[in-house]
UniProtKB/TrEMBL annotation:
Any one GO molecular function term: endonuclease activity
Source species taxonomy: Bacteria, Pseudomonadati, Pseudomonadota, Betaproteobacteria, Burkholderiales
Region entry Disordered, spans: 431-452
Name by which UniProt lists this protein: Restriction endonuclease subunit S
Domain of life where this protein originates: Bacteria
Keyword Hydrolase tagged: yes
Amino acid sequence: MIAGLKPYAEYSDSCSPWLGQVPAHWRTVRNGSLFGQRSQTGFAQLPILEVSLKTGVQVRAFGSAKRKQVMADLAKYKRAAKGDLVYNTMRMWQGALGVCPVDGLVSPAYVVARPYAGVEPQYFAALFRTGDYMAEIDAASRGIVKDRNRLYWDQFKQMQSPCPPPGEQVAIVRFLDWASGRLERAIRAKRKVIALLTEQKKGIIKQAVTLGLDENVELKSTGIPWLGDIPKHWEVSRVKSEFRCLNTMRAPLNSVERGRMRSRTYDYYGASGAIDKVDDFLFDDELLLIAEDGANLVLRNLPLAIIASGKFWVNNHAHILKPRRGSIRYLAHLLETLNFCPWITGAAQPKLTQDRLLAISIAVPPGEEQMAITAAAELRCQPLNDALARLAREVELLREYRTRIVADVVTGKLDVREAAATLPEAVTAGIEAEPTDEADDSELIDEEATEA
């Protein structure tokens, strides 16, 4: 059905450079004629809503390690009614917006846009998340530094948007729900295979770095629960004996400081790997980074032991370790296999302190054996790595295809009216949001609340 979509029969000029031609029966109008601003406060009994780059607007789940504290005076929070479109003024250019599923409260730093009669908010939410429209939002946003630019209501209401007839807006949303559901199921199926292959790879590496390559080697008991029996000639050591800790050399850079930078040549590392590019570097070396805090210490959705090479910067959310001896690749594999939960402190925000990390006991073979183990394990994992890379590329292509379909449909490049009319009722029933390994971004809700 998707492959059979065709353009509309007639087009006309939208008079908007970024949009170009639109179907002849569509209008191009200001957002102010589609939405009115809602600025109601004093509804402290309503649930708190949050805005996420990935999932739009949802009821806030308290207790997560990544959540920030809500402002004490809920009377200052804005009421958002079911069906209203809410956006984060500072992150709108990244797609931080969505349609409210229920009546609730949002940060006073956010804009609540109430749709007028004949406006399907889900259509416009999809439109506003397209790449071309977000570029227009970025251009219309105002601020001193790009990362702190905001799209205020006065700028939003002046922006131009394509506007299909009301019934066609509904048909477009219906089709996109169906198409997104099919593509999400395909993505999820590939991600399940990725998860299985990743576990198989972890098993191969763990077997090699904890017991070596010789299946007949004589073992000895360490008396340490997480080490168990190890080859007799291996040494029981501690992290601090195998590494120098360079934490005193790390330095955080906030988003404003990074936003002022221009060349952005060097990787900027945090707890989950490289998160940005910056103009300068702190290290020119090959070092091992271990997450110091964050939910990933418990969830393990992303690697915890990361090798950083060359010139780079590290903030204060990652421990920095330099091997005193041996193979950094072996030691990275070894630390990645550890369950750090017994050494983690903090319930709301998991943290692995420097003292606790350095005190962990590990089993270490001789240096030459470390390199042999690493080479053998990585060779055995190469077919898995090839399969994982292929599957990751397929997932990326499916995501790109979904993005292209949405953009073409909401801007009138493809006509879905006939296709939407043939779809069964409740086309999205049972479809869940695509899971992700990326860091959660739903804490965006209150980051600007005190500045409003």
